[in-house]
């Protein structure tokens, strides 16, 4: 069956009154209601009746202060996720929008588009969907909202032929996000897009055929400003950082002070350094105690021309961020303080570590448990052992304060620490 | 059955598309080689490369849930006044990447003419990051786009200028799962009553052990009700979080009288200066009052005005409150401090003041 019965239906001509929603059309901010009405009023388009009923149902929600969608099961051929099914609970009143599914489509890293590709995406959604697109959802997906069950496959096929693919839903690897990064930001410490595509495209099977205990999210931020909120929202967060000294252009420091004032610079830069690593010299040059610097980005954010990250750049990996369900909010824990990301080999190592973490999650998490909750349940040492990472002081705010721990192998563990340290410093363990 | 369903096409599992094919040529040329940036005016970023190349980014607010006409209008502007290359920020602002400075002013004019506010950079109130709400979610306590539209109308002036002490990031969430995320101000649904159970449906719709396991306070247990296998709730234990509702829709958590809105403050993603923080409760029990949510708007207004008047440059909301103390925050905003502000969840103790540090 083709859905051309929608066009001939006289009911479709009857427009739902939307007095409450109409109030959201005035004011200076762009109105989504006006947009929905444009779709409803596109009488030559297949989706017009659907959008009329959608507006009717939304108005009904505004009246009743309740939502009227229920989920279900729907996907495309060969995939087990990526489509969010929505069936109306008030379909009798609003039959044309009784099915209003979303296709979650993965965006390019950094959300870069040409106007040409955006137009092509619009054309497909105008033909097979509702004409309503959200740029972007909170997981980063382009959300093509409003598709009938029948059109889901063809809509996906067309998007797929254009080079786009479904993202994640359910207990699976989810769509990732990355900041604008190296493409346009001088603060970027690694190639976010490369890491993003490298990891996600390697594990597409975990995304398209959900079989993990619960969701697993990656996010990629090029520096500590964490523009994609990876620490709080990603199971696996990659955050750019550097190991050597930050770069200072003293002439630009002087210019900044000349422009902004000495006191203002002290108040907004020197005093705001979280580890007291900055000091202003009498000649208006800057002293940086790089050993104390924690790469927080503040002074670099303020003095963009004078200060920048160092040259020995890479990233930190933090594991276990998530929001409240069900044990409470969690931020990621620093698990790999530094991983170099320059060569092909570096990126392969990162992908291998990501794979180790996903496998550990698949093998050890309980159903509906996020990796952060698993770590809470089993303890960080057990997780580290599982993924082959040694304990590091950068993982903690401070060492344990509770004495309730068995330490009879403390000496062996200490020996390992000194061995690692010696190895890092390039000397044999019995040198001294 | 349609032909498409009989002979489905096998997907080409292309995964994440290559962004380089869509990027502005100057972004590709200078990838990883940028030197610094500044902001000639609110809504405009100027990035300078070590190669000497310069690109301008003009940022404008959108409604996020966009009809194809809106997207095509944005594309028309990008083609006529820009270089045909755009990107989106995580807060659904569009950015036009332009090589020629002479194009910046006409681009701004065209965007404003078409009703897209130019701003959202630096110390502004950027677009509210939000969720789906009544438009598309299966468990929403309120709408998302409507709340955001109402608030951004009010905050419009703070979007198009950079006059706040530091950036202000607001989020909204339609249930306590908080898909909107952490924010300087977070406007989240807060349920106030335990779910109402339709015992006729539970056995058929819900996987009961999974629902029991979902409860964070172990308040749900299997029970026979009127001879039917169902679930019951210990209402004294229940914290009204709504976690049981997604896996078991017959446990309706929403109600016209019990779906309320809470406002939280002081969340921060960035590691700049202080470490990232979660937002903290400022006020609960505000009415869920569409289409303008005036009670919510009034509190947000008070909080933003107090922050704007009192915070020092570069202090985020949470850092400002850290300095002045919570007493001053509640005084300045005329909000009540109640027993419900005292954390009772796991780890609550570390949120209490175990020092003699006091603000008077």
Q: How many strand units of chain A?
A: 16
CATH class of the largest domain in chain B: Alpha Beta
Category by helix and strand content of chain B = alpha+beta
Question: How many domains make up the coordinates of chain B?
Answer: 3
Beta-strand content estimate of chain A? 5-15%
Strand order of the largest sheet of chain B: 1-2-3-6-5
Radius of gyration of chain B: 24 Å
Helix content of chain A: 25-40%
CATH homologous superfamily caption of the largest domain in chain B: Sulfite Reductase Hemoprotein, domain 1
Number of helices of chain B: 10
Radius of gyration of chain A, whole Å: 26 Å
Protein model, in words:
The complex is a heterodimer of chains A (432) and B (360). Chain A is built from 16 helices and 16 strands. By secondary structure, chain A is α+β, with helices and mostly antiparallel strands. Chain A folds into three domains: 1-167, Alpha-Beta Plaits; 177-242 and 312-424, Sulfite Reductase Hemoprotein, domain 1; 247-308, Alpha-Beta Plaits (2-Layer Sandwich), CATH 3.30.70.20. Chain A has a five-stranded mixed beta sheet. The longest helix of chain A has 21 residues, at 344-364. Chain B contains ten helices and 14 strands. Chain B is globular. In chain B, strand 10 and strand 11 (228-233) form a beta hairpin. In chain B, helix 3 packs antiparallel against helix 4. Chain B has 360 residues and is an alpha+beta fold. In chain B, the strands form four sheets. A five-stranded antiparallel beta sheet of chain B has the order 1-2-3-6-5, with helices on one face. Chains A and B meet through helix 3, helix 4, strand 1, strand 5 and helix 5 of A and strand 1, strand 4, helix 3, strand 5 and helix 5 of B.
């Amino acid at each position: 069956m083709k859905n051309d019965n929608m066009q001939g239906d006289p009911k479709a001509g009857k427009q739902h009154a939307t007095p409450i929603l109409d109030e959201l059309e005035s004011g200076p901010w762009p109105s989504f209601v006006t947009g929905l009405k444009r779709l409803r009023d596109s009488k030559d388009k297949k989706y017009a009746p659907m959008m009329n009923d959608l507006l009717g149902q939304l108005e009904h929600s505004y009246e009743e202060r309740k939502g009227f969608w229920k989920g279900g099961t729907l996907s495309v051929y060969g995939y087990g996720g990526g489509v969010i099914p929505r069936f109306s609970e008030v379909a009798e009143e609003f039959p044309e929008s009784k099915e209003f599914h979303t296709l979650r489509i993965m965006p390019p890293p950094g959300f870069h588009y040409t106007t040409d590709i955006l137009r092509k995406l619009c054309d497909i959604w105008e033909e097979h969907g509702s004409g309503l697109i959200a740029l972007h959802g909170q997981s980063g997906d382009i959300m093509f909202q409003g598709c009938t069950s029948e059109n889901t496959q063809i809509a996906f096929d067309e998007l797929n032929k254009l080079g786009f693919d479904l993202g994640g839903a359910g207990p699976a690897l989810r769509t990732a996000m990355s900041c604008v990064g190296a493409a346009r930001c001088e603060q970027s410490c690694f190639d976010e897009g490369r890491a993003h595509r490298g990891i996600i495209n390697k594990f597409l099977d975990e995304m398209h055929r959900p079989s993990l205990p619960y969701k697993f999210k990656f996010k990629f931020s090029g520096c500590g400003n964490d523009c994609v909120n990876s620490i709080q929202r990603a199971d696996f967060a990659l955050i750019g950082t550097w190991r050597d000294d930050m770069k200072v252009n003293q002439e630009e420091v002087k210019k900044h002070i000349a422009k902004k004032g000495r006191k203002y610079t002290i108040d907004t830069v020197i005093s705001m350094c979280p580890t007291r690593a900055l000091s202003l010299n009498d000649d208006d040059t800057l002293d940086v105690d790089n050993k104390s610097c924690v790469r927080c980005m503040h002074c670099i954010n303020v003095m963009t021309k004078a200060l920048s990250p160092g040259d020995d750049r890479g990233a930190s990996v933090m594991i276990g961020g998530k929001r409240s369900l069900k044990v409470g909010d969690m931020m990621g824990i620093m698990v790999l303080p530094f991983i170099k990301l320059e060569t092909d080999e570096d990126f392969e190592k990162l992908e291998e570590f990501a794979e180790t973490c996903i496998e550990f999650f698949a093998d050890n998490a309980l159903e509906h448990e996020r990796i952060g909750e698993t770590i809470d349940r089993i303890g960080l040492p057990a997780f580290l052992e599982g993924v082959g990472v040694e304990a590091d002081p950068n993982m903690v705010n401070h060492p344990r304060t509770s004495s309730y721990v068995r330490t009879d192998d403390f000496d062996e563990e200490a020996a390992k620490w000194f061995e690692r340290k010696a190895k890092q410093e390039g000397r044999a363990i019995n040198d001294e | 059955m349609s032909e498409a369903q009989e002979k489905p096409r096998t997907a080409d599992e292309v995964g994440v598309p290559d962004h380089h094919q869509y990027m502005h040529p100057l972004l590709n040329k200078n990838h990883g080689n940028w030197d610094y940036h500044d902001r000639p005016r609110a809504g405009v970023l100027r990035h300078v490369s070590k190669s000497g190349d310069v690109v301008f980014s003009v940022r404008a607010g959108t409604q996020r849930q966009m009809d194809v006409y809106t997207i095509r209008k944005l594309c028309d502007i990008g083609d006529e006044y820009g270089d045909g290359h755009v990107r989106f920020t995580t807060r659904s602002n569009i950015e036009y990447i332009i090589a020629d400075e002479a194009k910046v002013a006409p681009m701004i004019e065209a965007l404003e003419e078409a009703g897209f506010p130019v701003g959202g950079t630096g110390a502004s109130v950027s677009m509210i990051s939000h969720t789906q709400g009544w438009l598309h979610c299966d468990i929403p306590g309120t709408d998302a786009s409507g709340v955001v539209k109402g608030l951004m109308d009010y905050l419009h002036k703070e979007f198009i200028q950079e006059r706040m002490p530091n950036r202000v990031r607001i989020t909204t969430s339609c249930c306590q799962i908080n898909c909107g995320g952490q924010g300087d101000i977070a406007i989240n649904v807060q349920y106030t009553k335990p779910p109402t159970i339709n015992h006729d449906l539970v056995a058929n719709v819900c996987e009961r052990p999974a629902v029991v396991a979902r409860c964070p306070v172990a308040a749900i247990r299997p029970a026979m009700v009127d001879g039917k296998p169902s679930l019951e709730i210990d209402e004294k234990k229940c914290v009204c979080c709504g976690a049981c509702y997604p896996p078991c829709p017959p446990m309706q958590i929403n109600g016209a009288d019990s779906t309320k809105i809470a406002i939280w403050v002081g969340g921060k993603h960035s590691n700049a200066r202080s470490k990232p923080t979660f937002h903290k409760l400022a006020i609960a029990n505000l009415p869920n009052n569409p289409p303008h949510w005036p009670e919510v708007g009034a509190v947000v207004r008070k909080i933003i005005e107090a922050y704007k008047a009192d915070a020092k440059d570069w202090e985020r909301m949470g850092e400002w409150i850290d300095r002045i103390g919570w007493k001053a925050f509640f005084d300045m905003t005329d909000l009540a401090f109640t027993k419900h502000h005292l954390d009772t969840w796991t780890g609550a103790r570390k949120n209490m003041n175990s020092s003699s540090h006091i603000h008077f």
